[in-house]
Amino acid sequence: MFIIAGLGNPGREYENTRHNIGFRVIDDIAQKYQIPVLEKKHKAVIGKGYIDGQKVILVKPYTYMNLSGESIREVVDYYKVDETAQLVVISDDISLDVGQLRIRKKGSAGGHNGLKNIILQRGHENFIRIRMGVGEKPQGYDLKDYVMGHFTDQEKKVLAETAEKAAEAICMIMQGDVDGAMNRYNTKKKA
User: For a tag site, which of 8, 14, 71, 75 has the least CB within 10 Å?
Assistant: First the structure.
């Protein structure tokens, strides 16, 4: 069993913002594999289903970004998975261009408050994460305003392709090929 968690903030005002790209990827995966994500449990909405024969729990924490670890802790503890190999967390990353992915088996939060809280709640950094590029904050912008902002029409097109690549990477990860997913998808977006 795998837990696939996309980070974001609940509520209509946060839909389709840069900070909610994790929710977007969960929604895309749910649609592609016909997994309804409707059950309210573990401070989240979750969906249970199968991807390529593997049981998955899709998770959208409803604790707001900065407390994402509370929900992730409850889900991991309840389903008793090996979080170092069976937990995949999807988050936004302002240090990556729109269209770039960065997959890691472990690592620091890199300044991301949702990842910081997961690390705090779990007591370690050893879980797989997929960081989705949302572009660097323009000079003079407030960081909060930028990540709560919406994508341009051109960025939305790129993001649709990137979300598909993230789903493909997740399938590779679930087949036990994290290194292969990293080698294939941790490339710079071509200009």
Answer: 14
